[in-house]
Amino acid sequence: MRSPSIWNLFRSSPAFLALIFAFGAFAHAAAGPNTPASTLSSADAREMSAIKAPLLQLGPGDSIAIQVYGQPDMSGTVYVSDDGTIPVALAGPVQVAGLSPSQAASRIEKALRDGKFLVDPHVTLTVTQSRSQRVSVLGQVGKPGRYPIESNTTIFDLLAEAGGVTEKGGNTVYLLRQGKDGNVARYPISLQGLSGGEQTIPDQSLKGGDSIYVPHAPQFYVYGEVAKPGQYTVESGMTVIQAIADAGGITPRGSERRIIIKRRNTDGTYTTTKARLSELVQPEDVIRVKESIF
């Protein structure tokens, strides 16, 4: 069953996780003992670890503050133009699109040295407003939309900024990323298993153009001789008897020996079988508790 304390904490409070980038490797930093962490199967973990963790890249529309040490007249705020350049005093337009702030600063220093404008320039770049690096948050969140990211923005940061996962949201979210071939890859990230830290891996890095999708939680249905017939959320490891308990239990007229499950097959057809109380519930199961014959 879902842990109420951890789950409610994630839904109601911001996450304080950050990705620390060092030599292209992931490292996890948690701001507190209750900070959520993402979990994946071993196969998903191997697939995601193959993705390089890119630094924040500059792009058209970004606002950048330039500071040149010892040269206050050369400092100021500029915007990355549509062609990916920024105007630099003395050096003229410098191409920075696709570079991290530190890489762009190094390129400006080189332009100033190569032009013999300064002997040993020291340049610092700070992104004051990011318009090119945005990630869409879709599905079952409080405030779907597009949100700017920084180099240390995590998936949990964005989910918190988007108002958190709603009660209808599932325990698994998906990171959608377009590859160089134009195809969109989908990486599942589980929000369960947050307590205990088992099978945790560092948060997946984000980059502009990514999307985070929170689907509806998988549902099952209970009707017949139960106190509260209706639609309910499938919890991890939920059994038939637990599902019936969620529906208020069997009425005095019902019988636990006369429970059937209508289950959808992979080909779209349905199969109806007698249910075992210890049987695991699957998404879209329809559980019926029949009336006792005695």
Shape: rod-shaped
The N- to C-terminal Cα distance equals 34 Å
Instruction: Output the CATH homologous superfamily of the largest domain.
Output: Outer membrane lipoprotein wza domain like
CATH topology of the largest domain, which one? Answer: Outer membrane lipoprotein wza fold like
CATH class of the largest domain: Alpha Beta
The assembly state of the depicted protein chains is single chain
Question: Beta fraction of the residues?
Answer: 25-35%
Helix/strand order: HEEHEEEEHEEEHEEEEEHEEE
Question: Your description of this structure?
Answer:
The protein is α+β, with helices and mostly antiparallel strands and 294 residues long. It folds into 3 domains: 4-53 and 133-214, Outer membrane lipoprotein wza fold like (Roll), CATH 3.10.560; 63-129, wza like fold (2-Layer Sandwich); 219-291, Outer membrane lipoprotein wza domain like (Outer membrane lipoprotein wza fold like, Roll). The protein contains 5 helices and 17 strands. The chain has helices spanning 4-12, 42-49, 101-114, 155-161, 240-246, and strands spanning 17-19, 28-30, 63-68, 76-79, 85-88, 92-95, 123-129, 134-139, 145-148, 172-178, 184-190, 211-214, 219-224, 230-233, 254-264, 270-274, 286-291. The longest helix is centred in the middle third of the chain and has 14 residues, at 101-114. The radius of gyration is 26 Å and the shape is rod-shaped. The model is unreliable at 1-54 and 193-203 (pLDDT under 50).
